[in-house]
Specification:
The complex is a heterodimer of chains A (307) and B (404). By secondary structure, chain A is α/β, with parallel strands linked by helices. Helices cover 36% and strands 15% of the residues of chain A. In chain A, helix 1 crosses helix 2, helix 4 packs across helix 5 and helix 6 packs antiparallel against helix 7. Classes of the chains: A alpha/beta (307), B alpha+beta (404). The interface between A and B is large, with 59 and 72 residues.
Chain lengths: 307, 404
């Protein structure tokens, strides 16, 4: 992407995005009885948490965190999550996809690189019902993916969690209509208008800590199609596999089993930003192997009730 | 330069999706993996028209149903483009996109009569007081004729005259060939103006003369300590300094600003656009929804006002219907007392409507509210002159209103 080089501009741009996100978070707390922040341990949800701290300062963040745990996490992410919870004395709710699978007696497909992305939806909807959450705050961004580019900031879901893109509410100016019927809920996306680069520039400005996998590190990898995947414990190594140790970093944090890494030597935030300014490949295109199944994989998941 | 948020609107088949695709492609803002996908979806050359079509139904039907947002930058500026649908039935989505934009790019086809959709796009721009730029597309199909371009320009100005908008810029383009989108056209040496991208880069967002007037809607009241409360809100316009005397337009109560926390940090001053937390010297506190101003500068609360309404629901709006009016951070029961007239899409004149309007109509209505409201005239202060009507049964947003 063409690089802009305007420091003062960048500061005012970030201020405006930040103020918008804080305004949205405050509307959530004013309009809903039982909101929750969806927390994956990735950079976007960490950014959201940081914004929530600012929004209600000097009071603590007035909602819990919910982690839908696929069981395929990077250990570094879980350790980071737990340290954050400890540091700020947060209430963290964890609901596991593994439990959903066991309760319903499902058989998982025996893919080589299994994705539990679809299954997360069920665990999420169960958790929403269990706790009666009326608003789920998520770190989705419109620049990530084409169906996300279409979504409202307050995205109303029916009693089954479904998104109907043809029936989205009109959303005018900065007036967010959070009125819903019993059983419905709203997914709220305060950083809708942020790009990947905006998130990183904010992380730099605010000196926000991130899990170590976002920075270059040595890891055992195999090349699958054109993607680098980490050698994870349950992976069956095939004779054609060529295990290489190389310097990589992750652009997104998803399931260890289906999120690919980027060969990189960017070891700090500044270097990551430089790398992103020069890349010709999108965030999801480079890192998610499960979004490339069809041209509407995300849209289909969202219609089912995904984040 | 600040980020430019602009909207693109065009009639069906005017080539709008291709224009955005061209803009992003020629300014090198389409990642390689997405280009590859666009090529594979169309079987060969990247189909630039597919760049902003986000939903499966949109790709299948070749139409835009809902607004898509794209984020891109040139060497000079960052942009957020809201790509809006052209179809009349999706006007509410056009409105959604337009409500947060500083500029509207309307795409029309050279050598074609104006469609009702183009009239509607202009009407929405006029209503929201958004400046226009007109991209005259498919110039390649008329041998880049200067004469046809000039004729169309004259016709456009005459047709839209009664909307009393600032005269728009006109740019002759070919989205398919790339003329005057990012690259200057070699085929139209008679055109001396800017390319579309140059225009967007240089466009100055108009500052209202009343920019210094303070407006802040209270969002939350926080109990910071036992006897200390704070309020939160986003400064819609103006600035606040510690020690300032401010007043609630709703109650007339006065407050002296003690501490300002701007974006979570203690500050001496906060400016327009900042999300802040304020504490006051006084013990009493205001409530969510109140509008904070400087003394003598605030609006007087009213129970009854005239508004322009854009009706979005499938059902008819009849006079006498009760709604919830949401404006700023307020929610107030309100009744549309009468529908005085509606705008005729062909003449742009006010015509009689016997107290009933249907989807996508723009009308002048009288509204009364259960409690006094602090809405201001939109033409004077846009951010505090708008609201939405919510259907009390479905909870859907059924109308946007602008106080006259």
């Amino acid at each position: 992407m063409p690089a802009l080089n305007m420091t003062s501009f960048q500061t005012s741009h970030l201020r405006s995005l930040e103020s918008e996100a804080i305004f949205i978070l405050r509307e959530v707390v004013a309009q809903f009885k039982n909101p929750v922040l969806l927390f994956s341990g990735g950079k976007d949800s960490i950014t959201l948490f940081h914004l929530a701290q600012k929004a209600f300062y000097p009071l603590p963040v007035p909602f819990s965190l919910l982690h839908i745990d696929t069981g395929h996490n990077f250990p570094e992410t879980l350790a980071f999550r737990d340290a954050l919870v400890e540091k700020f004395g947060l209430r963290l709710i964890i609901r596991k996809v593994q439990d959903t699978i066991a309760e319903r007696g499902w058989q998982e497909a025996q893919d080589r690189f299994p994705s539990r992305n679809w299954l997360q939806t069920f665990t999420l909807l169960d958790a929403i019902r269990e706790f009666g959450f009326d608003a789920c705050i998520g770190g989705g961004r419109r620049d990530e993916e084409r169906s996300r580019a279409k979504e409202r900031i307050f995205s109303v879901r029916d009693s089954e969690g479904k998104w109907d893109p043809g029936l989205q509410r009109v959303e005018l100016w900065n007036i967010f209509n959070g009125r819903i019927h019993q059983g419905e809920n709203v997914r709220v996306f305060p950083i809708s208008n942020w790009t990947e680069l905006d998130v990183w520039e904010f992380i730099q400005k605010e000196k926000i800590e991130l899990p170590s996998i976002y920075f270059a590190h040595q890891r055992q990898m195999i090349l699958w199609k054109d993607k680098w995947l980490a050698v994870f414990p349950s992976l069956k190594i095939e004779s054609t596999d060529h295990i290489e140790t190389l310097s990589v970093r992750y652009r997104t944090v998803g399931d260890m089993t289906c999120t690919s890494a980027v060969p990189s030597h960017a070891s700090n935030v500044k270097e990551v930003i430089q790398e992103l300014q020069n890349t010709r490949i999108s965030e999801r295109g480079q890192t998610r192997i499960d979004d490339q199944v069809t041209d509407a994989a995300m849209e289909d998941r969202k219609k089912m009730g995904y984040f | 330069m600040e980020v430019l948020r602009f909207l693109t609107a065009g009639s069906v088949d005017s080539g709008k999706s291709t224009l955005i695709g061209r803009l992003l492609f020629d300014s090198k803002n389409i990642p390689d993996d997405q280009l590859q996908e666009l090529s594979s979806l169309s079987g060969g050359q990247p189909n630039l028209a597919l760049v902003t079509d986000g939903l499966r139904a949109e790709r299948q039907q070749g139409i835009t149903i809902d607004v898509a947002y794209r984020y891109f930058s040139s060497h000079k500026r960052k942009f957020i483009v809201a790509d809006a649908p052209g179809h009349q039935e999706f006007t509410r989505n056009l409105f959604t996109g337009a409500s947060n934009c500083a500029l509207m790019v309307i795409l029309i086809e050279v050598n074609r009569p104006f469609t009702e959709q183009t009239r509607r796009h202009c009407m929405v721009a006029a209503l929201l007081e958004i400046p226009l730029v007109v991209a005259v597309n498919k110039m390649d199909s008329v041998d880049y004729s200067e004469q046809l371009f000039n004729e169309l320009k004259e016709k456009f100005i005459t047709t839209m005259a009664s909307l009393r908008m600032r005269e728009p810029e006109f740019i002759p383009v070919s989205a398919v060939k790339g003329d005057n989108v990012v690259e200057r056209s070699a085929n139209m040496s008679w055109y001396k103006g800017q390319t579309l991208l140059e225009f967007l880069e240089a466009f100055q967002v108009r500052e209202n003369e009343t920019a210094s007037v303070l407006r802040l809607y209270v969002q939350n009241v926080l109990s910071v300590q036992k006897n200390e409360k704070a309020i939160t809100g986003r400064i819609q316009r103006g600035a606040i300094k510690a020690g300032d005397l401010i007043i609630s337009a709703n109650t007339g109560e006065k407050y002296t600003v003690k501490n300002i926390f701007s974006l979570g940090e203690k500050s001496e001053q906060a400016n327009s656009g900042d999300s802040v937390t304020l504490t006051f010297e006084e013990d009493n506190m205001c409530n969510r929804g109140e509008l904070l101003c400087k003394p003598g500068e605030g609006p007087s609360p009213i129970n009854e006002f005239i508004a322009t309404i854009c009706w979005f629901d499938d059902s008819m709006l009849e006079a006498g219907t009760q709604f919830l009016l949401q404006y700023g951070t307020n929610l107030v029961p309100a009744v549309v007392r009468s529908i005085n007239s509606k705008t005729d899409i062909h003449s742009f004149q006010q015509i009689a409507c016997s107290n009933v309007i249907s989807m996508n109509d723009v009308a002048e209505v009288s509204i009364t509210t259960e409690q006094p409201v602090t809405l201001e005239a939109y033409s004077a202060l846009q951010q505090t002159g708008v609201g939405i009507l919510i259907d009390t049964h479905s909870n859907r947003t059924v109308a946007g209103i602008l106080r006259r």
